[in-house]
Amino acid sequence: MSTSSASLPGGTWALGSLNVTRFGYGAMQLAGPGVMGPPAHHDGALAVLREAAGLGITHIDTSGAYGPHVTNRLIREALHPYSPSLHIVTKVGAVRDERGGWVLARRPEDLRHSIEENLEDLGLDALDVVNLRLGNAQSPQAGSLAGPFEALVGLQREGLIRHLGVSNVTAEQVSEALTIAPVVCVQNAYNLAYRHDDELIDDLAAQDIAYVPFFPLGGFSPLQSAALSATAARLEATPMSVALAWLLRRSPNILLIPGTSSVAHLRENAAGAGLSLSDEDLAELDGIGRQKTGRRQ
User: Fold this and answer.
1) Is 82 a catalytic residue?
2) Backbone region of residue 10 per phi and psi (left: phi > 0; alpha: psi in -120 to 50; beta: other values)
3) Which one of 66, 190, 194, 211 is the catalytic residue?
């Protein structure tokens, strides 16, 4: 459930027993090109992570597959020993091959290995939140998640994981997961123009479950929209700032994890997400999603 926060836009949200800022940080872009290898500027990557913590961000998203190992080890180097208020959310279900491909790793032994690697690289005894990543690189894929999700529940019972989430999933898979164990967050692709999870977001909000959009700025290509640009110009802000502010207004259970490898861009995102949007602004921006998806109010 959301509460107020004076330091960052959006206040905070309870991920199970963990209180996190709704404005978080996604570490994926700290790895090298194609999310493989080390960053071009090691010290710059550390500076971004330390700035995130300095801004009061308490929700950092990562994965052992980023690099692989790179972002987790950067987080440990920059921020360990961790503040008690900082919570790191990771994901499992895929690993990288030698050419940078994403290989499914959802067998019980694969998941245990991934959890153990995350623990070692992050310097933790237990992981705050682990998302089970399903689907493929393009989209969620229908099918039961019972096998891998139950394997994570077993690791949770061993004390290696505090809370569970799911990522890149269908609404039906979310429902199935909830019949197996509590879920504190759902992480799917969603932004101002890509609105396919609108109904799911509302359903999750009614259950006090967080929704965490990945690619909140449109992924690797900036969102393009005349309405977005017009609203940004009127507010003397960047289109990306408006897009982030809209997400925070869309529903109280939405948590943001925009990524960047730049301290200046991180600050810009944090400031921009706090933009005040009028009802007229919101109506105009909402039209972007209806045009893209065919939604009707």
Assistant:
1) no
2) left
3) 66
